[in-house]
Model the fold of this input.
Amino acid sequence: MVLNKVLLINPFINPKTQKKFVTDVINISFPLSLGHLIGYLLRNGPFPVGIIDEQIEPINNVEGVLSSMESPKIIGISTLTSTSRRAFQLAEEIKKIDEKVLIILGGVHPTVTAEDCLKNKYIDIVVKGEGEETLDELINRVFNEKDYRDIAGISYKADGKIIHNKDRKLVTDLDIFPSFPYFIFEKNKDRYPGFASIQSSRGCPYGCIFCSQRSVSGRTYRYQSIPRTISDIKSLIDKYHPKTIRIMDDNIGANKSRLIDLLDAIISNKLHKGISFTAALRGDNIDEDIACKLKMANFNFLSFGLETASNSLMKIINKGETVEDVIRAIHLTKSKGITTATTVIFGLPTEKSKDRWDAIKLVNSLKLDSVRFNILTPYPGTPVYERLKKENKIHIKKDWENFSVQYIWEGEELPYVPAGTDKYELIFMIMFANLSFYLSPHGLWKILTTPLAGGNVVALPKKWYLSNYFFKILRVGIYLVTRFLLIFFKMIAVKMSIIKSDARISKTLDEW
Done:
């Protein structure tokens, strides 16, 4: 039996953010970033590396996990804001059993909250930004008993102080990274809807104020060579024979000429024969020629971030495109017979009730295949977070439990509510927007017949109606409708109290 010296963990989401019976029916996120990390370590390091994804395999016996490791033991925990509670919990449990274990936090959340993370006595080191080179160098230094305190891209504790080293420069040539280690995850490939995924580029050159990806890669945009991407796609097809491959780039169309070259290569290599592709891009990234190429290359699903129906709000969030750009792109892709999706964000700074109703009307008029209405979550490190924090307008619950787009279905203490808006009204409108779309005849038909419908959140398994999955869906449906009605009555109660208060003020003025 080979004992691991390094263990990477993908912790589960804060249960106060999302109930377990809800989690059980929604898509599991494929840990693509963690896979790239372990692939790099396995290629460069002579030491055994293990991985645990708690979405599939919750850790119930920490002592058993530690006993399966060989000293010196290093545990890296990939951490998002929504999983930070579990990351700290795991660190505490591990250190109480074996204080010699080196605990490293990595990911977007510790990158932007390194100081706070290291105030936790159970965390030893934070790896900031893209972690392949940094973690690899760090682990090798530790195993060779060399000082690691000069390594770029880390923060650590020394003599009771928190030290932040300089940032590591981003890798410009993505071809140096090894191919994705699908074999690590293949035993659970049927449980990962996104198992057949490819990432051919990193970053995005645009400046949307709500995007947390900029915290890692800034506004740089880097991409693999076309031969390398084609090679990765071929390897994935040859070994796993997927029906659909997801291109998980932040924005596949950021460089139009490169996108055209990629589509031409897919077609010339006949990779589109029997295989479809999905991707996300901006409305202003697509034109008639690119839309035709996407169709020829068998891209059967495209997602655009609409965000809002207001151009003034588009400027506030620094989207760099107009509502009309996105509408044109949606009409264009739909005219090619491509399944089309969009996302909308409610609760943007200065947003009014009319803006939200306008967005709902616009989305319904577009007859989209898949829609997701989200609430603005000002994640730490984003420009909107920094701006609202300076204005003292952010409410952070313990363990960041309210920092999730799914939180509205669990709680009401939103991290941010625009001025002049009641939180119950905001939650109600998000719920109404989602439910009215998916409970309509059009929405129900799309969920039942269109791949990747359901806002990319739910994907019905085959013959779901003949299994216990039906009852799971029914339970969630009853819960969501009940929650919606509760919020509706709370919203009405608040509005009635305001009316009564206004009446009392009016009466007092009359008496005067």
Q: What stands out?
A: Residues 39 and 86 are 24 Å apart (CA to CA). The longest strand covers residues 69-78.
